[in-house]
Design a protein that fits this description.
Helices cover 30% and strands 28% of the residues. By secondary structure, the protein is α+β, with helices and mostly antiparallel strands. The protein has one domain: Hypothetical Protein Pfu-838710-001, CATH 2.40.320.10. An eight-stranded antiparallel β-barrel has the order 2-7-6-5-4-8-9-11, surrounded by seven helices. A hairpin with a 4-residue loop joins strand 5 and strand 6. Helix 3 runs parallel beside helix 5.
Length: 311
Amino acid sequence: MRDATIAEAVPDEGMNPALAGGPASADSAEAATASGLALETQLQRLAPISLDEINAQARLMTRVDRKYFLPRGLFIDLLAATRDDFRVLEIGGKHRFEYRTTYFDTPDFRFYRDHVQERRHRFKVRTRTYVDTGTCHLEVKSKGYRGQTVKERIAHPLESPLTLTPGDREFIDSVLDGAPAQAGRSSADRIGSAGRSASTGHSASARARLRAADLEPVVETVYDRITLCHADQRLTCDLDIRAVHGDEQHVGPSDVLVETKSPGGGGIWDGLLKQVGVRPHKVSKYCVSAALLYPQLPSNPWERTIRRYFR
């Protein structure tokens, strides 16, 4: 692997303003079209990788995540700088795929409030629909002592993303209880389970345990995703984010929300972004969306992000 630097990909004279410190380009339909073409051009230059290869190479059910908001010009420059290192997920000649995610919480938003309070043991429960491939999964994400994220999932009926089946509820309860889940989980989706007890330390506490029966759908997020992979590193790059509940909708930024995922948290893009002074953001698509759609909720941890990117 060669050492990639952004300067290698961008000549000084034509450097993107985000790198050179110049003014941002005009936010217009013409600029958006040009940006879209430039993005697709760079994606075409990356070697493709299939979904099966990604799952075998960097499934990363246990990982350290870092999130960044990147202007699209800077994002394209980074693609160019690392084109020899990263491969891009390609299915049927496409590189961008629509995701629709429904988040479940209690009527008093306990999962959300656990994030606000920065509890070390916290969860997200969601169904995720992969629109382009026509598949859906129920996922439970947990956060542990060392900042590691563990994700476990099972297949979910495509036609009912807003509903939890009896098998879903059994699976959720088993994860919340810290016991190995049984219902419908493949061996591949057990990755990270052994580490879950060690890293998240699920143990009995004085708080009343949540049950899946307490949960209801509260927020939907919709966005396009590009996935990049290198060895045991994965990047998910989300564009055109929307937060939806019923008839209400909030549109996110033109920036790309990039999440770096690696066993140790120090991937290639993390290093390059540090070079140009871009720091990780404390952001959760669920929590930001819930704060926008339910303004009565406390939102201090994400208020700056919301003001800058979502209002």
